[in-house]
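Amino acid chain
________________
===
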Amino acid sequence: MWDSSFDEALRPYLPFLPADEALTAETPLKEYGLDSLATVELLAVLEEKYNVRFSDDALNLETFENPGRLWTTLSKLQPAS
């Protein structure tokens, strides 16, 4: 599962997700309001917060389909600790 920073970064870009509703790995991001502009903004936030760069291969609709896929992609970009 992801860390709280990921949840905090993602929620502002999901205007249709009620504050009391859990964000799960399968939450459909587009259905909860993640549009193309918000995707670009979220991408910049995640790159800065986690000090990574998304590769061109990762910049696709599937990556931003749900939090689970997005976190998996982000995790692969982070250096091993």
Summary: The chain has three helices and no strands. The mean pLDDT is 95. Residues 18 and 32 are 9 Å apart (CA to CA). The first helix runs from residue 4 to 10.
